[in-house]
Specification:
The protein has a three-stranded antiparallel sheet with strand order 1-2-3. The chain contains five helices and three strands. The chain is an alpha+beta fold. The longest helix is centred in the C-terminal third of the chain and has 26 residues.
Length: 150
């Protein structure tokens, strides 16, 4: 019964509220890059569209088909990503990975809202879904930068 109670605590009201209000769910008509990422263990997917201006995300769209934890992560990322640089997104991804896998602190602002996912540390099978939004965003930014330089 303890395991079930822990899982109920994991899906807190705050996580469920974030999952219910994911921003930027409209896909972009003409993005600089689009990346789709999938978590093989659970099948969650996140597709991200980005448009860059002066090395920062100026437009962002996402399609999120994930568990509540992956949705909450995508919600926080969507709320923080406009104006972010690739370095900020990659740093947030590294910090989120460390938070989940090495008991590190929450990511720095503007992605500090990801701290809500700290209780998921003990659920390794959920980590890939939680990382999808940042993984897809970082890769899309890299592709957009390469396309803009070509």
């Amino acid at each position: 019964m303890s395991g079930e109670n822990d899982l109920i605590k994991l899906y807190s009201g705050r996580i469920l509220a974030l999952a219910a209000e994911i921003p930027h769910l409209d896909r972009l008509d003409t993005p600089d890059a689009t990346v789709k990422k999938r978590a093989p263990l659970c099948g969650s997917t996140v597709t991200v569209d980005v448009t860059l201006r002066d090395g920062r995300i100026s437009e962002f769209g996402q399609d999120v088909k994930a568990c509540a934890l992956g949705q909450a992560s995508a919600s926080v990322v969507g709320n923080a990503v406009i104006g972010a640089t690739r370095a900020q997104v990659e740093t947030a991804r590294e910090q989120l990975t460390a938070m989940l896998k090495k008991d590190g602190p929450a990511p720095d602002a503007p992605f500090d809202g990801l701290e809500v996912l700290m209780p998921a540390r003990d659920y390794k099978n959920r980590h890939a879904s939680i990382l999808l939004a940042l993984d897809a965003t970082a890769e899309a930014m890299e592709q957009a930068e390469q396309a803009n330089c070509a």
